[in-house]
Amino acid sequence: MNSGEAGDTLGACDASCAADLPLLIARYRPALVRYFSRHLQSADDAEDLAQEALVRLVRMPSLSGVLNVEAFLLQIASNLLRDRFRRDKSHQVLQHVSIDEVAKDWPSEDPHGECVYEGNRRLQAFLAALDELSPRCRQVFLLQRYEGLTYSAIAKRLEISVSAVEKNMMRALLHFDTRLGGS
């Protein structure tokens, strides 16, 4: 987004509005989705990156030193897009390597006991965190992440607003980040 476009689209926000999650989503999400949509082929990827930008903003321990939340959020969005392009570029390079070349250095396919134990521990931690969510929040999360439904499809199925779906997804993601951040 260029600075003129951002000012017209997002509106001014001081650091205090960062504490109001619904206000943040309502104010910044549509512009972020448009920004990412112009640079990505997938609408789902644009939605995901817009959500990730908002999550990163909310995760900030303090925004007291941020003079312009809008500019700060746009910097986050730009960094996310840059990271996505780097990742996609590195994945394209790996696609051209022969599998035989790569596979010769792989260890046995049999999982080590500690890997199985660690995987089981992480799964149990995830399931416990999932159980801690409210029923509606858990339902929205599972419909989006495991059934692959869009926010609007979830809203129609559950007979709630898209905004309610967004809020529940944000709550779920923040909860998982808090509970599983180190896992």
TrEMBL record:
Q: Which residues form the RNA polymerase sigma-70 region domain?
A: 24-89
Where are the bilayer-spanning segments?
none
Q: Which GO terms describe its molecular function?
A: DNA binding; sigma factor activity
Q: Which residues form the RNA polymerase sigma factor 70 region 4 type domain?
A: 124-175
Which keywords fit this entry according to its UniProt record? Sigma factor, Transcription, Transcription regulation
Family the UniProt entry places it in:
Belongs to the sigma-70 factor family. ECF subfamily.
Q: Which NCBIfam families match?
A: sigma70-ECF
What protein name applies here?
RNA polymerase sigma factor, sigma-70 family protein
* Organism, scientific name: Lysobacter antibioticus
